[in-house]
Amino acid sequence: MITKFITSSKLSKGKAVTQKTQITWTPNRRKVDLSQIDDPLAKPKHTLVNKKVNQLTNEIMADKKFNKQIEFYKTNNITFDADAIPKFEKHKLSELLTPEEVQRLLDHAHMTGIVTKFDPRLLSPIYVVRLNGKVELFVFDSMHTLTSVAVLIQEGLMSRTNTKTGKREVITDGLDFEYPCWVIDTDDESFPMVAALYRNGDGSKPWGPYDYHRVYVRSYEFYGNAGPANSYELAYQKQKLMVRENAVPLPKGHEDLGMIGTLGHIEAVSEYKPADMPELEFIMTTNNKYWKGTNDASMFGFYGNLYQGFTNVNQPTSGKQFDAFLNELHAVIKTFFTSMPELKSATTAAYKDWLQKQGKSTGTPPYNCALSIVLKMYVRLGGKHPVPSDVNMFVYSPSSNVKIDIYDSLPLSVRQDVNNSTL
Amino acid sequence: MLGYGITTREDPWDRVMEYSRSVAAPQQFCNLYYGKVSQIKDLERNVKTQWNKFRLDEFSDKKLEWLDPKWKKELIDLENFVADQIINYPYDTIRKVKKEFMPFSVDNQGRFANITTNPDMFLDEVKLT
């Protein structure tokens, strides 16, 4: 039982065009219901749960693929040796060797960053391998941690409480200072490399942009921590703006991502600095006004360049005339492309064709390409409002009398429809 | 099993044959919607993204264009969702193939050969039920 959508580009054919058809913006009447979205950041602090281990195991065992792997082990009597779990030990810094065959080069800028923001509470154990029970320990992860601690102790910049006298004292142990290590015992000489790969690659799940955003927002919302240079507060302000404009950010893989009112491009939003907030607000409000909770990534390039195109020459981006201009611009998009994602597809195809005419290989269209195309159409349709200079871009002129405009790379049917229409 | 899809070819028969060949059994389309390419593509994208949660994720790393029965979505739910999109977006060129021409099966090659010259014979306006 299949519901099928069949298409035709011929619907408008056969119409006898005696006069130009006036195009107007038709408002989107779809309803946006944010209550249907399971937004992690909408939950108040008191509703957040500290999960017990059995809650986690129950959740993952319900996953079919995960469960199959566990069943495979059980079926084949495959078990794992708990004695091989690494041991937690304290070792003198001088006992730790950093093998060149495993480790990256010491990153000086990263080191400076670590000591600039140094906080002993954020230190982690040094990850080491002990081969055949020997004294030497081979560091396969946390080289920068090790180096920063060693420097601070050597330079007399770390202190501790003397357990006998109860008084604070500067540590003078030098490299005999004992530091917590996570020790893997093995007789496999290649294991430091395997362990390094696992710690930094296969076995790690780096945080994505949403994870940072989530912690920034909650740090400010729950604890009033504005963060370095008020970055957490800024993330909170962006969160409020996005929700207000029907663009609830969700992490990749979230079940509700794609629903009306969700946004999967928090990385684009994260880039906006405090001084750019008026531009972000313009993007979010304009997109929501016209597309009602449909948040395509192309909105940042389209509306961002539109905003800059006017503000860079001190032209207004609000008011009656500007609103009328926006209505006309969106009438162009909706009439000829239907939506922002379809505009993006058409732009990609036109840009490819335009580059091929120049004998160049294809590439991703620049962020203002779609805007430029729509502005070119706006002008051809008789639009009267001033337009940003993007309208003149994407014209290849190999000689003074030859001009190859990307507009001519749009499908013929679109250009014919533009010729037969007016604003 | 309820599913959805899109074709930009002249005759949807090509598409129903593709479905049928891959499962070695005749398949049928219970509803067909017809309209301008960009609107149809956008409508299908909306079904795909907004109903992403309900799509089957078996047999492939990607979610399929079949709806997982565990969500208990009925044909009427899908019809209403599509109708809501068409009426309220609005997709002004999209119309629904009349009931008398449905379901569309492997025996119906060429059924819509005249749809471009006589659309009203085949197509109804979409309504919410």
In short, what is this structure?
Chain A is of the alpha/beta class. Among the domains of chain A are: 49-79, no CATH class; 82-200, Conserved hypothetical protein from pyrococcus furiosus pfu- 392566-001, ParB domain (Alpha-Beta Complex); 296-423, no CATH class.
Would you give an account of this structure?
In chain A, 40% of the residues lie in helices and 13% in strands. Chain A has 423 residues and is α/β, with parallel strands linked by helices. Among the domains of chain A are: 49-79, no CATH class; 82-200, Conserved hypothetical protein from pyrococcus furiosus pfu- 392566-001, ParB domain (Alpha-Beta Complex); 296-423, no CATH class. Chain A has a 5-stranded mixed sheet with strand order 3-9-5-6-4. In chain A, strands 2-14 form a two-stranded parallel sheet. In chain A, helix 3 packs across helix 4 and helix 11 (320-336) packs across helix 13 (369-380). The radius of gyration of chain A is 30 Å and the shape is elongated. Chain A starts with a strand and ends with a strand. The relative contact order of chain A is 0.09. Mean pLDDT of chain A is 92; it is low at 8-15. Chain B has 129 residues and is α+β, with helices and mostly antiparallel strands. Chain B has one domain. Chain B contains 4 helices and 5 strands. Chain B has helices at residues 13-23, 37-50, 75-88, 119-122; strands at 3-7, 28-35, 95-97, 104-105, 123-124. Chain B has a 4-stranded antiparallel sheet with strand order 4-2-3-5. The longest helix of chain B has 14 residues, at 37-50. Chain B starts with a strand and ends in a 5-residue tail after the last strand. The mean pLDDT of chain B is 91. Chains A and B meet through strand 1 and helix 12 of A and strand 1, helix 1, strand 2, helix 2 and helix 3 of B.
Structural class by SSE content of chain A: alpha/beta
End-to-end distance of chain A: 43 Å
Q: What is the average per-residue confidence, as pLDDT of chain B, rounded to a whole number?
A: 91
Tally of strands of chain B: 5
Strand/helix succession of chain A: EEHHEEHEEHEEEHHHEEHHHHHHEEHE
Count of strand segments of chain A: 14
Helix content of chain A: 40-55%
- The tally of structural domains of chain B comes to 1
Report the helical percentage of chain B: 25-40%
Biggest sheet strand order of chain B reads: 4-2-3-5
Largest interface (CB within 8 Å) is between: A-B, 34 and 58 residues
Strand content of chain B: 15-25%
**How does the overall form of chain B come out from the CA principal axes?**
globular
Based on CA atoms alone, the radius of gyration of chain B comes out at 15 Å
Strand order of the largest sheet of chain A: 3-9-5-6-4
Helix tally of chain B?
4
Mean pLDDT over the full residue set of chain A: 92
Order of helices and strands of chain B: EHEHHEEHE
**Major sheet details of chain B:** 4 strands, antiparallel
What is the straight-line distance between the termini of chain B?
A: 22 Å
Which residues of chain B form runs of ≥5 with pLDDT under 50? none
